[in-house]
Amino acid sequence: MSDWIKWLLLGLLSIAFGIFALGNAIAASIAVTVVTGALLLVAGAMQVVGGFTVEGTGNKILSLIMGAVMLFLGWSFLDHPLQGTLTLATVMLILFMAGGIARVILSFQMKGTQFFWPTMISGILSIILAGIIWSYASSEPAALLSLLGILLGIEMLFN
């Protein structure tokens, strides 16, 4: 299978998941929280197990602490998915803002190429999405339950 077919299939899959997320935003938000919690539990357990094989006392302690933090976060997200969704919305705010700023900076390095405007527009849209999250979070935190799924769907469509 050629590379362009793989990229096309990946793009179509991203669009399909984006439409699904937009169609059921609250379910998408909670699904993201549950999947994140499960992945944090698995990663935390692996980090703890790996911590016992690391050389050096400082590295061992740091690895065990990081594993314990991931286990705690994973359990917390699975035990309280609604509060976890609010936490993830805050993390999304930070990631959208950082990713948007990085893409805007990257676009200036691509000036004069065909990728300048798509990269610039993508970065600006991510910064706008971060601003929307910020405004909803400051005015009505409960609106974030659906907003996270909506923003996930929009981000997947633009990806």
Q: In words, what does this structure look like?
A:
It is built from six helices and no strands. With 159 residues, the chain is mainly α.
Question: Which properties best describe this structure?
Answer:
159 residues; mainly alpha; 6 helices
Radius of gyration: 19 Å
Relative helix content: over 70%
The DSSP helix count reads 6
Output the helix-strand order. Answer: HHHHHH
Shape: globular
Largest sheet: none
Instruction: Flag low-confidence runs.
Output: none
- Helix vs. strand class: mainly alpha
Please state roughly what percent of the residues sit in beta strands, choosing from under 5%, 5-15%, 15-25%, 25-35%, 35-45% or over 45%.
under 5%
Average pLDDT figure: 89
What is the CA-CA span between the terminal residues? 22 Å
Strands, total number = 0
Tell me briefly what this model is.
The chain has 159 residues and is mainly α. Helix content is 87%, strand content 0%. The longest helix has 29 residues, at 81-109.
Layout: helices, strands, pairs:
Blueprint lengths: L2 H21 L1 H27 L5 H23 L1 H29 L6 H24 L4 H15 L1
Helix pairs in contact: 1-2, 1-6, 2-3, 2-4, 2-6, 3-4, 4-5, 4-6, 5-6
